[in-house]
Structure formats: C-alpha cells, structure tokens
Design goal:
This protein is an alpha+beta fold. It contains 6 helices and 10 strands; from the N terminus they run αααβββαβββββαββα.
Amino acid sequence: MRYFQSIHELTTAIVRNSKNPRKTGFRGPRHSLFILLALALNSAPNAGATDEIAFKLSEHLNVKEASLPYDVYLRLSDISPTRIGADAFVDLRGIQANAPGLLSRVLDDTCKRKLAVAISDVSASGETMTVQGQFQAKFFACNTRDPKVYYRGVLLLGQNVNFQATARADVRHPCVRARLVDVQLDPLGLIGGAANLFGLTDLAERLIVEKAEEALKAHPVCPKLPAEIASLDPRYTAGGVREISQGGVGAALSGSADTSAATLLDLVRVMKTRGVLGPENQ
C-alpha cells in the first residue's frame, strides 16, 4: 500500500487520476471520497468502480448469555454530489440455527401449573419470518393448607398447543426491528377441542404474543460501520426481512450518508492516525 507524505500529494494524486479516466477508471474529483474511504479501510479501490466500495463485517448479537455471530455485507455507492448510498445486507443464519434452543423456555412454574414454550423451527419466506413451536401446559393438584409450604400433587391436566408465529421487520434508524403480525394456534390431543372451553388457547396466545414481542423488542439488529469510517453515519430508511437461499433468515437496510467537508476531514484524520499520510503531517 502506498503511503502519501502529505495531503498535497494525496490531492495531487486524486486530480491526476481524474485527468486520466481511461487509464485509472476514475471519472472525476467527486470520486475522491471513495479513494479516501478505501484508504481509511486499508484497501485498494477498484480501478473499474471508483464510485463504489463493498466490504464485509462480523458482528455479534447477545441473546441470554450467548454471543451469536452474524455477518454484514455493506456497500457504499455514489448517488449524488452531496450523498452516498449505504446498503447493508445482514446474514442471520448463524443466529437462526441457535434460535430454537435459546428461545425455548419455561414461562411460568408454580405449585398449580407449569407453562413452557418449545421452539422447533425458525425460517424466512420472502419478506417474512416464521417461528414454529409448541406451547405446553400442565396443571397440578396443589396442597395449600399450610400457607408457608406448598406441595405439588398429581398431574390433573396436560395439554399442548402447536403454534406458528409470523413476523415482519421495519427499519427504525439505525436498526432493523422485527414485529409480530400473526399467531396461529392448533390444540393437540383428544381434549384439544376442550382447550378453548377452559381458556387454554387464549392463555397460550396471550403469553406467546407477550413473550415474542418482548424478545423482538430486546434484540434489534443494528449494523455498525468500522471505526475508521464511522463518521459517515449513514441514515437507514428502508428494509426488512430477506430470505437467503431456502428459508435462511437475512435482513436488508438501505439509506444514505452525507458527504460534507467535515466527513472528509474526519477521514483524513483517520488516515493520519493510521500513518497513511505519514507521521510528520500536522
């Protein structure tokens, strides 16, 4: 990688490139920003595409006590004299593979009852995400004669309810956040039809919606730029769930960033810190 000895040498190189577009693929001074971005990221700009930079980032999402990795593919492109486009595609298949074990949980465990949810599958279809699982309810006899001690007795009733929850995602800068849009229930067993009579399906739906909304709200996906170019601070305005291959869960965000003089100066400062402009530059 070439180390420029002064800002003058850097800008001279940019102007020289702009005067030789056939040789360098550089189409004008406007694209100097993309040279700065490439230098800040310690990568060489593509001679045939000086108005676009693409790179991959690895990030983590904390769920319970687990830190789950996911990849972000970010593309910056020239869209106007004052703004650059910012498009992020997030590959969440690593989180998807671990979701059933992490999201299955006991919801309520008392002397009289035990309620749990077991997640069996998480998948994407088009622009929606589907979670399939089972709501499990057990009701027990409970000896409450001693107010200080409760004794769980025999199992009085056990009932499982299969469910399918569907979610979509919206972009609320700087994150993509999933929201529940539908829940379908299917009581199982010989007494499945009686579940409605005892209010079990209503209980299942209420708890599934409540816990799902809590989980979705607590775990937004918020792609971050590398520290070297964080001053761009893109504003995402559109996006949502995207299916990867067959059922893989992904997400997309689309927006733009301002290319003000302050942004360019921040990039130059980063290059100076990294020694790209040479340590003697002030």
